[in-house]
Amino acid sequence: MKVGGQPIIFMVDSGAEHSMVTKPVAPLTQRRATIIGATGTQTARQFCRPRTCQLGGHEVTHEFLYLPECPIPLLGRDLLTKLGAQITFNQGGPANLTVRGPNALIMAVTMPTEDEWQLYHQEKGGLMKPICLLEEFPDVWAENGAPGLACYHAPVMVELKPGALPVRQRQYPIPREARLGIQTHLQRLKDAGILIDCQSPWNTPLLPVKKAGGGDYRPVQDLQAVNNAVITLHSVVPNPYTLLSLLSPQASWFTCLDLKDAFFCLRLAPVNQPLFAFEWEDPHTGRKTQMTWTGIPQGFKNSPTLFGEALAADLSTFPEENLSCTLLQYVDNLLLTSHDWERCWEGTKALLARLSEAGYKVSWKKAQVCQREV
């Protein structure tokens, strides 16, 4: 393809959001894009000024992202879309890239079910996700309904230290604005059965934490006193840097999944539920009640260890050898990697099926599916 009159060899990468060049094709602008690598490192890169691009009799103007560390210039989705490009795969032969001419007709065509993965849904921030996964695995997505339940695990028992006595701490005053914000979250959890009314000799305070970038509040329970009264389990949570060192140098496609309300998936034994009670005043009626959790709560010191071990047990036989994928788990975050797109795609579907079967819920909003970088 000619860029500004100069021929440049590009590699077609339909998984890349932006088309990239390894050398500046024009002066750089102040416009930037944040590139997030597999290790989580964020790097801001600048765009070049617009240049005329010519390919197959088609001429468009485009701004390329300047990425000097990229081994070869990439022709991404942005420019492929402008060019009206089509990629055709021939059995036993090479793939062909064709560009729609400026006077070509556009018509609607039907698509076989097995090719639905090519239809993508774009979220805020430019993240592309195949919408067919919503229909193929409806029960696994947290946005579709009830919270998860780890169905292969018995309710968790919490062991107190010898001589431990109930702790009764007063609830701190909470401004009405914050109580109104928290009430929404508590009502959602109560409707889902994660919170229940109770009467308990234990009581620890609830704190309002304002969410970054907005006026919403979320409830955070101060469980320090309960944590001090409970026997600490040996932590088996891995070091994330050690985990990432296990990635193969050939890993080039990634799926990252975040489990929603993960700790609540493990149920608390009814005898231990009173340990985590807190007092709440309804901002609308002024009525005070005690509530507690039916699942292991956030802020409980043993929650990451308990949940991590449960999820690891449910995924102990995954992935199967024929998938040619690697799965890394850090508490409630999963990273699936493979050296090519097709194996990453098949591995992602197999992982979603396994999570759905075991009763976990995945955040569709945060899911990154078959991406070059996550």
Describe the protein in words.
The chain is an alpha+beta fold and 374 residues long. It folds into two domains: 102 residues, Cathepsin D, subunit A, domain 1, CATH 2.40.70; 234 residues, Reverse transcriptase/Diguanylate cyclase domain (Alpha-Beta Plaits), CATH 3.30.70.270. It has seven helices and 23 strands. The protein has a four-stranded antiparallel sheet, covered by helices on one side. It has a four-stranded antiparallel sheet with strand order 21-22-18-23. A three-stranded antiparallel sheet has the order 15-20-19. A hairpin with a 5-residue loop joins strand 5 and strand 6. The longest helix has 18 residues. The chain is elongated. About 6% of the residues have low confidence.
Question: What does the secondary structure layout of this molecule look like, with pairings?
Answer:
Layout: E1 2-3, E2 6-7, E3 11-12, E4 20-21, E5 28-36, E6 42-48, E7 51-55, E8 58-62, E9 65-66, E10 74-75, H1 77-83, E11 85-89, E12 95-99, E13 120-122, E14 128-130, H2 132-136, H3 176-191, E15 195-198, E16 206-210, E17 217-221, H4 224-229, H5 240-244, E18 253-258, E19 278-281, E20 288-293, H6 303-314, E21 326-330, E22 333-338, H7 341-358, E23 368-371
Parallel strand pairs: 3-10, 4-9
Antiparallel strand pairs: 1-2, 1-7, 5-6, 7-8, 11-12, 13-14, 15-20, 16-17, 18-22, 18-23, 19-20, 21-22
Keywords: Hydrolase
Pfam family, one: RVT_1
Domain Peptidase A2: 8-79
Order of helices and strands: EEEEEEEEEEHEEEEHHEEEHHEEEHEEHE
Percentage of residues assigned to helices: 10-25%
Cα separation of the termini: 29 Å
Question: Oligomeric form of this entry?
Answer: single chain
Tally of domains: 2
Mean pLDDT: 85
Shape: elongated
The biggest beta sheet, please?
4 strands, antiparallel
Residue stretches low in confidence (pLDDT < 50, at least 5 long) are 104-109, 112-127
The name CATH uses for the topology of the largest domain is Alpha-Beta Plaits
Number of strands: 23
The CATH architecture category of the largest domain equals 2-Layer Sandwich
Number of helices: 7
In terms of DSSP E residues, the strand content is 25-35%
GO molecular function: aspartic-type endopeptidase activity
GO biological process, one term: proteolysis
Domain Peptidase A2: 8-79
InterPro entries: Aspartic_peptidase_AS, DNA/RNA_pol_sf, Peptidase_A2_cat, Peptidase_aspartic_dom_sf, Retropepsins, Rev_trsase/Diguanyl_cyclase, RT_dom, Viral_Replic_Matur_Polypro
